[in-house]
Amino acid sequence: MSKRLKVKARSEGTLVLDAQGLSLHVDGDEGMRARIEVAERTGRRVALSALTPLEVRRSGPAAERLRFLLSRFDVKPVTDAVMDAAAHLLDTSDLDGHECLVDALVVATAALCAPPVLLVTSDRSHIPALCKAAEELPGSPVVKIVHV
After folding, report:
1. Where are the alpha helices (DSSP H) in 16-134?
2. Of 45, 60, 50, 54, residue with least CA distance to 23
């Protein structure tokens, strides 16, 4: 008789979705679904900024799917700490707040999540600079990018 050892999943950090990551998942992208399944299976939290669903608004059946997915994820509020971190990121990276505000808030949200942090994004211009700037925040958080 074989015995199976049950191992409790330990926390393995956070997978943060930006608008493109969430949009792909809402639209049924298999690669994004697989990333999220692996994250959940390995104990990684799936999180996103409370602003992200506003960028990914849908109607009809897609809106219902979006609501369902949001109920499964950790939707992080835009707190004073997130706003302060975003301001620091914009200052450090020398990016314009008018153009990069949402990206800065998403990266600030990621930087304040449980490490290690992976940020799913298609952005190759502002997000990398903001993630680099995050390393200068208290605690020197590292936000690694997963490009989709």
Report:
1. 19-26, 30-41, 52-55, 61-72, 80-93, 97-111, 126-134
2. 54
